[in-house]
TrEMBL record, chains A, B:
SMART domains, per the entry: HTH_LACI
Protein name: Transcriptional regulator
GO molecular function: DNA-binding transcription factor activity; transcription cis-regulatory region binding
Keywords: DNA-binding, Transcription, Transcription regulation
Length: 346, 346
């Protein structure tokens, strides 16, 4: 592999050390430094670590002109088995098509950072940019990409970007507030929430929006009405079975996301509760299926396609040396009212 | 680009011509032939065409040992905006992960063959294999990939593979038969069908299965009950509005696929018809959402993940020089009975 490797042995005219200088400092040959720079795997791990250390110490920065990026754009998912992955892919694909790039798709298989194999692949294929979805790089990985001049952007609906890492997100807190206010305005007072995993900042932000909506309406938050899910259908179903069999069951549920809302639909169906007559449900995301379910789901629209487009565009621009106006872009949510919400039963 | 280009100027020991011989025949230099082989775009189109012609005429075949494929696997979709794209990606990703490959994702943007830009990219990045979904290569593109030793497989739920092209499909005819027989066994006699585009062989196969089921039950096919859709939600809705307002409306509909079934759900809801009490609906695909809609959808399961796994595995194996037992693999469908089908109203 090692597409169009540069050996880059000339003068370090712009303050970045030459490969020879790094080689001397690390006690290896210049071709070995070149191999490490290009993500070749035929270098002993210890040697590699020593070279990486010197690259970092000496502040090596690949000069733009010496290495043309490939016509690839890397896209890394935390996990692929979510209905919204397609929305994100579509957004990135829109930019890739316009820029004549192909997308390299990876899944970090549930880990929050991709593995070393992925990093090696990226260094070797030298993409025009990297977009990470709900996934992040550790400090060492960031350093590896930065020193090779490979820009990366986190598309981060979770809302928890590392310092200084360019990221695109959405205002989850405001979405939670809007969803809950909508239910309050319809007259609901017993409003439950099924959140996402408490380890994700987006879950916490939506929950905080829900709490603030209740508190500003002077309704105390009943902890029995707040459940933690994992954003999958089954979690909504399980929480729904529990909530809807409470003696004083809620008349409305903010389901945290659309898939959990569908789980609530199923629980309500099984218990003979009609939506929206007996129970109002609000989702979050506005996946295409939100329009198709029965009744069509009232939900908070998270503009996933636009977010992904913005993240991909940002990565491509960074690769061309353009500095973005802001390293954090939040795209606004909006409430989409359909037929799953109504006034509470009299 | 041009990852690890080989110039391959040695003897043509295994009957394949050398680059020099091709260069002579095409009246160009050997480096120009090398550029064309490696998908470089800095060659005039006319020159390129001349070289491609000689590669074909002289039967050039890249020797396996001379060019290591990259750690990439190309995946091309006809269009990405379908809920089942994620299922396919997951299947390919399962194989990619096991083989330590990354997926390069492309969309042929509704065209049935990918464009020249894509072909150039593939020749340059030299993937371990190519999987095409509902998309095919034209004869020239096939020749270009074959001469460079890049294997390709069509994942072809449409059921219309080109001669000799390795492909993985499913038995659409049998699925259509099973869906319709299920409705007949419940006692339905007025059974409508909303098919897919008539240009796709999978649509025709499902429709033929439907017809055969009716004919073997000695029920004449009523052409007013057969509609053509495009496999999207809206088509199911439109056909549903028409079918369900007929004076002698059907008591059951085989919807062609799951998304069209959801369109039928919506039409039925609007017209105040209950599923399954007033109307039975059967889908095709068994997307995750089929379980989540209300009522959960009876559908024909098309094992998309397994099909994609099989296609990706086949491409990887071909790249290693293993010849498959069969160039066409069909994976069986199965009927999944849920709650959207019941006996017709008395």
């Amino acid at each position: 592999m090692g597409s169009g490797e540069v050996t880059d042995l000339g003068e370090g005219s712009d303050n970045t050390p030459t490969l020879s200088e790094i080689a001397r400092a690390a006690g290896v040959s210049a071709p070995t430094v070149s191999k490490v720079l290009n993500g070749r795997t035929d270098v002993a791990p210890k040697t590699r670590a020593r070279v990486e250390e010197q690259l970092r110490e000496l502040g090596y920065q690949r000069r733009r002109s010496t290495a043309q990026p490939s016509r690839l754009l890397d896209l890394v998912f935390h996990e692929l088995d979510s209905a919204w992955a397609v929305e994100v892919i579509r957004g990135v694909e829109n930019v890739a098509r316009a820029e004549d790039l192909s997308i390299v798709l990876s899944e970090s298989a549930g880990r929050l950072t991709p593995g070393q194999t992925w990093v090696d692949g990226v260094l070797a294929r030298r993409p025009a940019g990297v977009v990470l979805v709900l996934s992040d790089l550790d400090a060492g990985q960031r350093n590896q990409l930065t020193s090779r001049g490979i820009p990366f952007v986190v598309m981060d609906p979770a809302g928890d970007p590392a310092d200084g890492v360019p990221s695109v997100g959405t205002n989850n807190w405001h979405g939670g507030l809007a969803a809950t206010r909508h239910l309050l305005e319809l007259g609901h007072r017993r409003i439950a929430m099924v959140g996402g995993p408490s380890g994700m900042m987006c879950s916490r932000a939506r929950l905080d929006g829900y709490r603030t909506a209740l508190e500003t309406a002077r309704i105390p938050v009943d902890p029995r009405l707040v459940r933690e899910g994992d954003f999958h259908h089954e979690a909504g179903y399980t929480a729904g079975r529990e909530l809807l069999t409470l003696p004083d069951r809620p008349t409305a549920v903010f389901a945290g996301n659309d898939l959990q809302a569908l789980g609530l639909y199923e629980a309500a169906r099984e218990l003979g509760l009609r939506i929206p007559e007996d129970l109002s449900v609000v989702g979050f995301d506005d996946l295409p299926l939100a329009r198709w379910v029965g009744p069509p789901l009232t939900t908070v629209r998270q503009p996933l396609v636009e977010m992904a487009e913005t993240a991909a565009r940002l990565a491509v621009d960074l690769g061309r040396g353009r500095q973005p106006a802001a390293t954090r872009v939040d795209i606004a949510t909006s409430l989409v009212v359909r037929s799953s919400t109504a006034a509470p039963p009299a």
